[in-house]
Amino acid sequence: MATPGSFSLTNTTTGGGGGGTVGAWVNVSPANVDFINDLTCGNFGSETMLVDPATGQDIVSDKRTSYGMFFRLAENDFIARIDRRLSALTNLPIENGEGLQVLHYPVGGGSEPHFDYLQPTNVANRESIARSGQRVSTLVTYLNDVPAGGQTVFPTLGWAVSPLRGNAVYFEYCDDAGRVDPRSLHASAPVTQGEKWVVTKWMRQRRFVSAGS
Q1: What CATH number matches the domain at 23-204, 3.40.50.2000, 2.60.120.620, 3.30.505.50, 3.40.190.80?
Q2: Helix axes 77-90, 30-40, angle to 10 degrees
Q3: How far apart are CA 178 and CA 185, in angstroms?
Q4: 9-33 confidence digits (pLDDT tens)
Q5: How far is CA 40 from the centre of its chain?
Q6: Closest residue by Cα to residue 192 from 167, 170, 162
Q7: What proportions of the chain, in percent to the nearest 5, are helix, strand and coil?
Q8: Taking the CA of residue 37 as centre, how many other CA atoms within 13 Å lie in the half-sphere pointing to its CB?
Q9: Backbone angles phi, psi at 163, to 5 degrees
Q10: Residues with Cβ < 8 Å from 61, sequence gap 6 or more?
Q11: How many Cβ atoms are within 10 Å of 90's Cβ, its own excluded?
């Protein structure tokens, strides 16, 4: 797991467990990218929902301009294979993973700086942390080349990762004691030409249990 004081992003391609890796570029095969694109075709149309930090309720975001959908954990054979691969990559059990989220950013689409870890400022987040532990890592896989814009930006660190088809950026931000690293603040720069498709995977400290399960 990452530890506060050690946040970094490394330019590497990895094929195994994450161990102590804090950040990495990862390569995804073109066939897998195509298959994910095929699975999502026709399933979009709703604006991305985010958790309101004040209430913990899902709301249509005014800080992110994108469209999204979720796959349930191991929803089909292909998604189950992806979940197993990401489990090995992050060195965490499959059941610690939230369902894959696919996002589509049209021209002008992006997101403001935010944290992926849950801030315990509301009942919903505190209950989620109690059920499943804190989010510990994020993997964002780029499903297409973006002609201009769309970088994943880490403003505190001064880093930006360009979206290239089949590449991914992985970062951890929570250690075994539950301490989080605010340097993981990140955003999606607006797409200025073309469009951007990504699939995101969040991992938890323990088995992920959704609300109402």
Answers
A1: 2.60.120.620
A2: 130
A3: 17
A4: 443 333 333 333 344 445 556 666 6
A5: 17
A6: 162
A7: 20, 30, 50
A8: 13
A9: -75, 110
A10: 47, 48, 49, 50, 111
A11: 24
Instruction: Quote the CA–CA distance of 71 and 141 in Å, as a whole number.
Output: 15
Give residue limits of the domains in the chain.
23-204
Cβ neighbours around 206 below 10 Å, total: 15
Distance CA 67, CA 45 (A): 6
d(CA 180, CA 115): 10
Structure tokens at 12: 């590497």
d(CA 61, CA 58): 9
CB atoms under 10 Å from CB of 162, counted, come to 14
CB 92 within 8 A of CB 136: yes
Amino acid at 35: F
Query: Is the pLDDT reported for residue 48 higher than 70?
Result: no
For residue 34, what are the CA distances in angstroms to 40, 97, 129, 182?
10, 22, 34, 34
Beta bridge partners of 11: none
| pLDDT tens for each residue of 122-169 | 999 999 999 999 999 999 999 999 999 999 999 999 999 999 998 889
Q: How is residue 87 written in tokens? A: 């489990």
